[in-house]
Amino acid sequence: MKLYAHLMFVVALLQVTAPAQSPKESSLVNPSSPKGVVQGFIDTVRSGRTPERASEFLADQVSAHQLNSEGETTVVRTPASYAEHVHEFLNMYGRYQLTVTELISDGDRVYVRWRQEGKHLGSIQGFAPTGLPIVEITNAVYRVKDGKIVEYWIQADRKGVELQLRVNAAKDQASR
User: Which of 43, 67, 91, 135 has the greatest number of CB atoms lying within 10 Å of its CB?
Assistant: First the structure.
């Protein structure tokens, strides 16, 4: 019971976020600025709305630095492979809601933190689908050159997702 209470506490912590950028603020961003490019990319592509438009925001080859506690990995993504990546998220989470909770720019770099809320509809980290809600908190720094994203560093709260998956699996098992 202590473990379950601890897991529920962690899940509750994950649900606390900073306020999202207001629509008025977002309309003031120059769409060709680094901040505007990244905001357009997040709103259009990463949100799952239209991943096929990735080439409007990504260079032909993008270095994606994935920062995980077990080590950093860099993969090269193309607009097509990124669109496939977003479709994988759609298969795992369904039509998820992506909310930007922070968007900060400095020169050619743009920092974004978002909250992705969906349902566990596909296998995630080896856990069978439960259909239960799941939240992922992610942050990334994008580098923009000549109006396109050319590189990014991304880190997702994988442990938080794992804890939710464990709780959901226990709930799913108990309901059978």
Answer: 135
Residues facing residue 115 across a β-bridge: 99, 137
CA-nearest of 32, 54, 34 to 45 is 54
Which is it for strands 71-77 and 58-68: parallel, antiparallel or unpaired?
antiparallel
The predicted model scores a pTM of 0.81
129-159 pLDDT per residue, tens = 999 999 999 999 999 999 999 999 999 999 9
Instruction: Give pLDDT tens digits for 6-36.
Output: 444 444 444 433 344 444 444 567 888 999 9
* Contact between 120 and 28 (Cβ < 8 Å): no
